[in-house]
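Quick one, tokens below:
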């Protein structure tokens, strides 16, 4: 009797639709947001190299783009969660889209003023909006159906994130990097001494090129905002209007070892992702003498690999537990980073590009593992995992600081500062391997 009942229950769970038919339209709209923030993330990564060339600043100074960009996630995640708790997922999404568009459109005065600080403020406001979008969309997708296939459903939605990322990378390559003035940094530094007005004209041209795509995406986001305003969304259980006991909730979350380790793993994952994608261009420029536009082509290949791998890994989750697959891919990523550090020339670059195949599964899987079983605490718990995206604001400047140093003598070989800087992504993968192993043990 008991065996028959369990069999019926398992069969019922196995037949649970990934996306219930009555919420397909809301699911499509929310899933489209994953592509929108993917575009913002990956049109921005190459801008670290672009600002360095345009404004003649150091690797560390130009990496402040990532500090401002991902800092918005860190600062706004908890306020976003509280806002969503008080109102609704839809309200959080609408406010997020408004801030996204506002930050993008602020590139107009930033370009006119030719002020790097104003660009940084624009990035920060933009990503405060992205923080609202991610804090709303990820748990909303998890709640749109059976809890048994929630992680698979989130991986499916996240599969559209790299599509937006690929579009952003292509725009960065063809509409920004390829259209910058061809005068290299050495030539620009010479103009700074001999013809500063000519340099200013070049900088003004380049900043106008840079701001164009951001203004365009700002307009598109306003259109998406209008669609959300007129569309109806089902309220999920406990959404909006309920009182949040912040102190007790935080106490339970801090006492939850699985969740806290998930936040740490997510911070290191986002750090490794942003470092690998941001500094592909610098690796190709410094180690192989490529131009930024050509180097960005390898970034696009990396994202294509990432996108393909995301769909493959989502399928593999039907047969392999999330923890086991996460730890295996993180170990493979660490091995490839070792190749990036110790193998010279194109081989090292190929290793860096291939790392993307290992990273594709990580964000949604860590997210799903960490939130599983949190119940009402998942709303604030989700904010903690979005706050962990702040890892992308801290680690790239640290890597850039290493890049600004001289070569490193290891005794048995000498490493350029560029290759040596990838020790930080290696450390990140070690942390993720550990989390995957712990998660796999809990799953067994």
């Amino acid at each position: 009797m008991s065996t028959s009942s369990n069999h019926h229950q398992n069969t019922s769970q196995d037949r649970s639709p990934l996306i219930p038919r009555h919420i397909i339209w809301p699911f499509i709209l929310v899933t489209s947001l994953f592509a929108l923030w993917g575009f913002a993330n990956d049109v921005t990564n190459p801008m670290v190299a672009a600002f360095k060339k345009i404004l003649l600043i150091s690797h560390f100074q130009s990496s402040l783009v990532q500090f401002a960009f991902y800092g918005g996630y860190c600062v706004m995640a908890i306020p976003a969660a509280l806002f969503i708790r008080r109102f609704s997922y839809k309200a959080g999404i609408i406010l997020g889209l408004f801030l996204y568009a506002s930050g993008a459109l602020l590139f107009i005065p930033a370009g006119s003023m030719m002020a790097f600080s104003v660009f940084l403020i624009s990035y920060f406001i933009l990503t405060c909006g992205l923080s609202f979008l991610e804090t709303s969309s990820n748990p909303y997708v998890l709640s749109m159906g059976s809890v048994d296939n929630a992680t698979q459903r989130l991986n499916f939605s996240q599969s559209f994130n790299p599509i937006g990322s690929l579009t952003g990378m292509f725009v960065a390559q063809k509409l920004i990097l390829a259209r910058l003035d061809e005068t290299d940094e050495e030539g620009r530094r010479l103009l700074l001494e001999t013809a500063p007005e000519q340099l200013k004209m070049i900088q003004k041209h380049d900043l106008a090129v840079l701001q164009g795509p951001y203004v365009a995406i700002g307009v598109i986001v306003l259109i998406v905002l209008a669609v959300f305003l007129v569309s109806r969304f089902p309220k999920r259980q406990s959404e909006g209007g309920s009182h949040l006991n912040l102190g007790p909730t935080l106490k339970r979350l801090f006492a939850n070892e699985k969740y806290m380790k998930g936040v740490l793993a997510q911070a290191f994952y986002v750090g490794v992702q942003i470092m690998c994608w941001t500094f592909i261009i610098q690796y190709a420029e410094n180690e192989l003498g490529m131009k930024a536009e050509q180097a960005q082509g390898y970034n696009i290949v990396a994202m294509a690999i990432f996108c393909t791998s995301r769909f493959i890994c989502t399928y593999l989750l039907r047969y392999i537990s999330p923890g086991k697959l996460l730890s295996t891919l993180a170990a493979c990523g660490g091995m490839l980073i070792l190749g990036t550090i110790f193998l010279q020339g194109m081989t090292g670059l190929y290793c860096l590009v291939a790392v993307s195949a290992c990273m594709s599964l990580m964000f949604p899987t860590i997210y799903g593992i960490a939130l599983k079983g949190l119940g009402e605490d998942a709303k604030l718990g989700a904010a903690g995992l979005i706050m962990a995206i702040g890892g992308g604001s801290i680690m790239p400047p640290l890597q850039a600081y290493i890049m600004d140093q001289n070569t490193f003598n290891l005794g048995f070989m000498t490493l350029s500062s560029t290759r040596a800087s990838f020790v930080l992504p290696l450390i990140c993968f070690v942390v993720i391997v550990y989390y995957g192993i712990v998660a796999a043990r809990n799953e067994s």
